[in-house]
Amino acid sequence: MPIRQLSETVINQIAAGEVIERPASVVKELVENAIDAGARRVEVVTGGGGLNLIRVSDDGSGIAADELPLAIGRHCTSKLSTDIHAIHTLGFRGEALPSIGAVGRLSIRSRTPAAEAGAEIRVDGGRLSPVRPAAINPGTVVEVRDLFFATPARLKFMKGERAESSAVADVVRRVAIAFPAIRFTLAGADRTMLDFAAAGDGPEARLRRIAQVMGSEFPENALTIDAMREGVRLTGHASIPAFSRANGLHQYVYVNGRPVRDRLIASALRGAYADVMARDRHPVAALFIELDPALVDVNVHPAKADVRFRDPGLIRGLIVGAIREALAASGLRASTGGAAAMLGAFRAGGVSYPHPGPAADHRGFQPAFRATPRGGGFDPTRSPSRPLDFGFGENAQAAYVAEPAERGPAGHRPTEQGPDEALSDTPLGARLGAARAQVHKNYIVAQSDDALVIVDQHAAHERLVYEALKQALSSRTAPSQMLLLPEIVDLPEDDAERLAMHAETLGRFGLALERFGPGAIIVRATPAMLGETNVPDLVRDLADEVAEHDTADGLEARLDHIAATMACHGSVRSGRILKPDEMNALLRQMEATPGSGTCNHGRPTYIELKLADIERLFGRR
Hints:
- By secondary structure, the protein is of the alpha+beta class.
- The chain is globular, with a radius of gyration of 32 Å.
- The protein is built from 19 helices and 25 strands.
- Among the domains are: 189 residues, Histidine kinase-like ATPase, C-terminal domain (Heat Shock Protein 90, 2-Layer Sandwich); 115 residues, Ribosomal Protein S5, domain 2; 107 residues, Ribosomal Protein S8, Chain: A, domain 1.
């Protein structure tokens, strides 16, 4: 076939296939243009999930009438100088507007503050109309109708209206977090879906905007992140382990103010929470990375959602280290969601108002006395108003040493030490307070100055043992076992070289290896904790990780997993009766151990119910 030059329309449609994937892509490009124009207010209106209508209005600097034809020309931009590495704006390619005009019906109305009137230009499926006067306030209004009408094949692959609207809303949320001083609104065909008022500048304003987007409960369950390493600064907020989500959609990451989705950063977040959160749960985070633009390539993809760092190992190490340091410094914190769930459970089956008496039979209240054919009367064991057997009063010791029913009529065995003596030296002012009871042979009930605390003894002790094992591993070189016959593993030359560069780090974890000629590694010792292991598989897995992340954390993760298993089997078991001093000792150790708010599997170790909430349950507030 002869070589020929493609038409301008076909070129624009091909570019549109790379830049404009769905309506959310259009919204992203237009909102970024508005922010680069200095807008303080950005309004987005959609119809049909964005396929029928997208309108983005701003109060920015606007576009001069004589520059409107350039604005919809390919590779025309005001945001990029001659230095392609000095990128300080969100948009810079000069492809968005011509790509949108190639696949939809595009109109741009704009007016600069110095102009007496505005101007408008239209592009219909790549066909350009002349510039004409238009009535508009200073700023710009970009309207897109019938998206993909010029490329029906792409239109067939669009999802339903609700899914496309959700994607548009996600774009607005992600951009809004990065620019708290700008007001963002998103309205559908029939109602306003999002309205983020301007929150101002500074860290506090950013947190207020994050709360607007993620919900008011996030700041109460978040850790402040602020770290710097080799000229790269990381700030933002990350959730405590007990506050998590079922997917990673609530992770917002920004590089020099640009919203990005990066596999390296997502992997670093998983690594930071590896031993404090369940594998099927994901942390909630808003992280901001600031670095020299020359150290990051934002021109990897036309949509500018992906980035590439010059030193990915530095970025990963900074994220993992900063979050783990924040978790260690945060002390003992429980998710506010646990208390909310407990309050909801209490309200579910009971009355939320003082009942008038046993004769009343309101919904949710069953009188304790009911006549029976045999003339049965009041049964205190079946009364919904009976006192809970927490062991207070004369039989307080019963709560600590509850035994099966066959041990006596009451099912209890008294202790030699009274509860008052056991608890007299325990400070209520401590974070978890003083132990008051053990119920169902697994849950410690404690009282602090202003709260009721319920602790899962097995989960709590499991975390304490695990942290002790980890500290022992980190304080010295992990013990290794020499192989009777050293094992030679054949690898690609690049993988072998990378492993050799990390040999010293791997040696700290008990894996002794070295180069053995071209494309081969010889392993002389393996970590003793691993026991019998498949050496080639271990080495290849480590080589893959080093190739992807430039780190050898996989071996440490394996050892941590073994330590977690040992901690699970070596901790206080459910069903073991604890003495008062044992319970209080467990509480004090929890207060002194970082990360003890969750067990090794990511489950909460305790739930705290504030006294004010308890008083509200009983109508005292």
